[in-house]
Structure formats: structure tokens, C-alpha cells
UniProtKB/TrEMBL annotation:
Name of the featured protein: Hydroxylamine reductase
Originating organism: marine sediment metagenome
Entry annotated with the keyword DNA damage: no
Family matches, as CDD domains: HCP (cd01914)
Gene3D superfamilies referenced in this protein's UniProt entry, alphabetically: 1.20.1270.20, 3.40.50.2030
Keywords from the named record: Cytoplasm, Iron, Iron-sulfur, Metal-binding, Oxidoreductase
InterPro entries, per database record: HCP/CODH (IPR004137), Hydroxylam_reduct (IPR010048), Prismane-like_a/b-sand (IPR016099), Prismane-like_sf (IPR011254), Prismane_a-bundle (IPR016100)
One GO term of the biological process aspect: response to hydrogen peroxide
Transmembrane region(s): none
Residues annotated as signal peptide: none
Pfam families according to UniProt: Prismane (PF03063)
Length: 551
């Protein structure tokens, strides 16, 4: 075994990737990412104690968030670059140690565990250090349930870190959230084994993730306005073209400004689709529409796209040679021999290389037949028609709501979500979010008295909007969310889906269905706890599940 990673849904054989990642992550990168998490725990051991003594340092806080995001599935595949993160982590750990020792004075404790780690001098030595802290150690020492719960907490933190990072890039941060990250990583550094305590910590991650998603909502809506129902084109228009994928709206805003008047159309891909509904983004006439579907189709779709492609966050797949030369990454996303756009000293990004690649490429030679879908049903848009929705429920015109969404993925079995959406009766409404929507978002579901039967809430982080909508409905009907005619059917793939699930469980939401398979790190006893406490249920067949949910 040269590596061990079981943090995402496509893990090998549903157990763990042991030679190379199914995602394309090689064993060296996996070891370095494990070491980076280990180093982040060491940093937080000091930062947590320093903070309790009133000493904080924003550079340390931001670094830990970014370091966790680097290790999220489909973000960074570049071993040399992850090694640089590890080297930097050693410097930040020294800084955190000084911060703590300065605050504690003669009372400073000598910390053990990851706090004591010192980096090897070469990349090879760092890789060996990473291999010594892989998850197999935890499984061997603590058994699958405890190790799995530790992984659940860590995965939740990784997903939440992604949202905190997006928000902090846009100037929205929260000291309490940073404090929790240090507290939780310090907790993991102590190798906790109490199942009840670990479960409680996982739910606490869910609570903090709600705050993180709210921060990101504040950042996005504050900068670009509230999403509004918008008909968007999903077929090509003639001309030079750039395709932008990932979740980072700020990158899109900068790209749109820099491409203004250059004769280039910008298309969204994957999780960037919801950007087309934000007033201050869609005002750009050259934001032409969406191209393609979810992340796992990118090798086929990027190959066919006749322009430049920009990946702002996950989910990146191993690029094919056919488009590698016109593919660019930015932010924390990396692939070893793919051009990267860094943030400049002025805090802005210069997308000139992307623009030049788009101008050099052929572009679309003709308009395709126009096809559109409607998006933009985030909390503000839905709340503005809440009276109509409540009236329709009271009149028996809307029988049930289904939230069918989450990550998409490559493995078979995900047609369940298409089949389920198609089977949903005509007097029911489907709410959706994240890239799982591509399983059915181009189908025509019609409307109920003017209310569309398919309401696309937005990106995965817009689960915050979904929660707000559910809470508002519960308020209107003077009941709890669990008493609403509302069923959650989630598809998971990676760590953002994990933190969203933890948020829903923290809110006490029962009867969530999850698929296409359960996380490999959830041990049998932990699963039983989740079933007993929350009635969390693996998906079955669309017919059986629908009958149970409507029953
Ligand atoms: S992220 Fe997923 S596919 Fe990649 S190595 Fe880890 S478990 Fe395997
Ligand atoms: S929703 Fe999940 S799977 Fe989809 S692009 Fe975002 S992180 Fe990746």
C-alpha cells in the first residue's frame, strides 16, 4: 500500500484508494496532503491555546483554512506545490508557537503530537513523513468506527474550510469560525476516541458550517445582488469563447471585466451556472450562458469546447492533452503542468493569458439552436413568492416538496436522481442545488399555478438558502421543519457534501436519504447511531423511496 485515502465517494472499491487515487491524485501528493493536515493540526494546537490567552494572528487563521481546502478532493494534484504548502506550514507553525509562548510566558506548556513535527529537508523526506501519518494508522490503532468518526470531523472541516475561504477572499470573515477551526484541529491532534464526543464534534462542525455558508451568502449577495429568476441559454453562440468552472464568483467578476469589449463570450460550466442569476454578473452581455454539465463530464466537454478554460476551484479532473494547453487554474486548484493564474500584489488577477488563449482558439463558428433553462431561485426569490406558495399548499395544489441535490459524480447509480425527479408527481415541487442538478435540470417540469415545479436554488453553499426557505415554510405553517411535507434526497461526492449533511443533522432534520453509496469511513456502529438518531437512510429505488416519502 503506497497511500490511503477514503475521503470521497469514488474511493476505490468503496474502501479506500491505496495505490493511486481514482480521482487522479498520485501517492506522493496524497502523502503530502496528509502531512499538510498533520501540520495544520500542529499549528492549531498552538493557535488554539494562544487565542484562549487573547493572542490571535490573521495570517495563521487564513493559512489553516487554505491548507485544509488544498486537501479537498479534486483541488490540488501537484506534489511539488503541496510540498511548498507543507514547507510554509512549518514556518506558520513556528509563528503560532511563538504567539502562544509569548502569550503564556513562563506558563507555556511543551506540546506533544503534531505540534512537535519538524519538516524533512527534501520533498522525498516530506513524502516519507506524510506516509507515516496516513489514515491507515488511525484505523489500525482505533478501529473503523473511531477512525471513521475522526475522518467525519476532518472531512466536515475540509468542506467548511472551502466556504470560509471563498468568503474570506471576498472580505467576509468571522473570528468565532477561525477559533472553532483551531479548537477542532487541536481536538483531532489529541487523537480523541470517545464516540459520543466525536459525534458531538461532528455536529458542531455542521453548526459552524451553517455560519460559513451564511458568510458566503452575505459575501456573494452583498457584492453581486440577490439571485433572481433568470432564463439562461445552454447552447453555444458564435464567437471566441472562455469557459469558467468551479465556485468562485469573484474570479468570474474579474474575468468579465477584463473580457469586456474584447469580442469574447464567457460561458459557465458546472457549479458556476448559478452565477448567471446574480444581477451584477448577468448585466455583462458577453456572459453568454452555460455550456455542458457537471464536473465529471469535463474531459469530454472541455475537449469539445473551442476556447480557453478556467478552473477556479474543484472539481478538476486529470486534463486530456487535447485541451491542456488552453486550460488554466487559479486559486488553490493545481495540476502540475497546467498554467496557473496567481493573485497579483494588488490583490487582483490578470487573466491576460486566458484571454490570449481564447483569441487564439477557433471559437464557436455558428450559433446552435437556442435552448434555455430557468435558474435563480435562491432564498430571496422564493421568499418573494412565499404567499403564493403557502396558498398553493393550503389549497392542496402543492402536495409535497422534494429537495433533490448535492454533488454529482462519475460512478454508476446516479441515474437514480434523474429517475426520481421524473417520477415526482405533477402536484409536487422539486428544489435543487449543487452540480447534482445536472441529472435533470434540462427536463421540462412545468409549473403549478405559475410556480415552477423545478426551483434551482444555486451552488452547494446555497444549502444555506434551502435551510432559510424550509425554516420560513415551517414558520408559515407553525410547525417544525420535520413536520413539513418536505423530503431531502442528497447525493454526495466529497467533503463539501459532508459538511452540508452535518449542518442538516445539526438542525435535527430527520429522514434524509443519501446516496449513491454511504461514505466508506462511516463504520457500521456509527451508521447505526445515525440511523437511530436521525433516521438517515441510504437511497433504495426511486419507486420505493418516493412511495415512502409521500406516504
Ligand atoms: S479523494 Fe477520493 S478518489 Fe481521490 S484518492 Fe481520496 S478517496 Fe480516492
Ligand atoms: S458540488 Fe461537489 S462535486 Fe459538484 S463541483 Fe461542487 S464540490 Fe465538486
Amino acid at each position: 500500500m503506497t497511500m490511503f485515502c477514503y475521503q470521497c465517494e469514488q474511493t476505490a472499491k468503496g474502501i479506500g484508494c491505496t495505490k493511486a487515487g481514482v480521482c487522479g491524485k498520485d501517492a506522493d501528493t496524497a502523502a503530502l496532503q496528509d502531512l499538510l493536515v498533520h501540520a495544520a493540526e500542529g499549528i492549531s494546537q498552538y493557535a488554539h491555546r494562544a487565542r484562549q490567552l487573547g493572542a490571535v494572528d490573521n495570517e495563521i487563521d487564513v493559512f489553516v483554512i487554505e491548507a485544509l481546502f488544498v486537501t479537498v478532493t479534486n483541488v490540488n494534484f501537484d506534489a511539488e506545490q503541496v510540498a511548498q504548502w507543507v514547507t510554509r506550514a512549518a514556518e506558520i507553525k513556528d509563528k503560532a508557537k511563538k504567539l502562544y509562548e509569548g502569550a503564556a510566558g513562563k506558563d507555556a506548556e511543551a506540546l506533544t503530537g503534531p505540534a512537535q513535527w519538524q519538516p524533512g529537508g527534501t520533498t522525498g523526506e516530506l513524502i516519507a513523513q506524510g506516509q507515516a501519518v496516513t489514515k491507515t494508522n488511525a484505523i489500525e490503532r482505533f478501529g473503523p468506527d473511531v477512525a471513521g468518526l475522526q475522518e467525519l470531523v476532518l472531512c466536515g472541516l475540509k468542506g467548511t474550510a472551502a466556504y470560509v475561504d471563498h468568503a474570506q477572499i471576498m472580505g467576509v470573515a468571522d473570528d468565532g469560525v477561525y477559533a472553532f477551526f483551531h479548537e477542532a484541529l487541536d481536538y483531532l491532534a489529541g487523537e480523541p476516541t470517545d464516540v459520543g464526543e466525536l459525534t458531538g464534534k461532528a455536529l458542531k462542525v455542521g453548526e459552524v458550517n451553517l455560519k460559513a455558508m451564511e458568510m458566503l451568502d452575505t459575501a456573494n449577495t452583498g457584492e453581486f445582488g440577490h439571485p433572481e429568476p433568470t432564463e439562461v441559454r445552454v447552447t453555444p453562440v458564435a464567437g471566441k469563447a472562455i469557459l469558467i468552472s468551479g465556485h468562485d464568483l469573484k474570479d468570474l467578476a474579474e474575468l468579465l471585466e477584463q473580457t469586456e469589449g474584447k469580442g469574447i463570450n464567457v460561458f459557465t460550466h458546472g457549479e458556476m451556472l448559478p452565477a448567471l442569476a446574480y444581477p451584477k454578473l448577468k448585466k455583462h452581455a458577453h456572459l453568454a450562458g452555460n455550456y455542458g454539465g457537471a464536473w465529471q463530464d469535463q474531459r469530454k466537454e472541455f475537449d469539445a469546447f473551442p476556447g480557453a478554460i478556467l478552473l477556479t476551484t474543484n472539481c478538476l479532473q486529470k486534463p486530456a492533452d487535447s485541451y491542456k494547453g488552453r486550460l488554466f487554474t487559479t486559486g488553490l486548484v493545481r495540476w502540475a503542468d497546467v498554467a496557473h493564474i496567481d493573485t497579483g500584489d494588488n490583490g487582483a488577477k490578470d487573466f491576460s493569458p486566458v484571454i490570449e488563449a481564447a483569441l487564439a482558439a477557433e471559437g464557436f463558428t455558428a450559433d446552435a439552436d437556442a435552448e434555455t433553462i430557468t435558474i435563480g431561485f435562491a432564498r430571496n426569490a422564493v421568499m418573494s413568492v412565499a404567499d403564493k406558495v403557502i396558498e398553493a399548499v393550503k389549497a392542496g395544489k402543492i402536495r409535497h416538496f422534494f429537495l433533490i441535490g448535492g454533488c454529482d459524480g462519475a460512478k454508476s447509480g446516479r441515474n437514480y436522481y434523474t429517475d426520481l425527479a421524473q417520477l415526482v408527481p405533477d402536484d409536487c415541487v422539486i428544489l435543487t442545488l449543487a452540480c447534482g442538478k445536472y441529472r435533470f435540470n434540462k427536463l421540462d417540469f412545468g409549473d403549478i399555478g405559475g410556480i415552477p415545479r423545478l426551483l434551482d436554488i444555486g451552488q452547494c453553499n446555497d444549502a444555506h438558502s434551502a435551510v432559510q426557505i424550509a425554516v420560513a415554510l415551517a414558520g408559515a405553517f407553525e410547525c417544525g421543519v420535520n413536520d413539513l411535507p418536505l423530503s431531502f434526497v442528497l447525493s454526495w461526492y466529497e467533503q463539501k457534501a459532508v459538511c452540508i449533511l452535518l449542518s442538516l443533522l445539526h438542525l435535527g432534520i430527520q429522514n434524509i436519504r443519501i446516496g449513491p453509496s454511504l461514505p466508506a469511513f462511516i463504520g457500521p456502529n456509527v451508521l447505526q447511531v445515525l440511523v437511530d438518531t436521525f433516521n438517515l437512510t441510504p437511497i433504495s429505488t426511486p419507486q420505493e423511496d418516493l412511495e415512502a416519502m409521500l406516504g
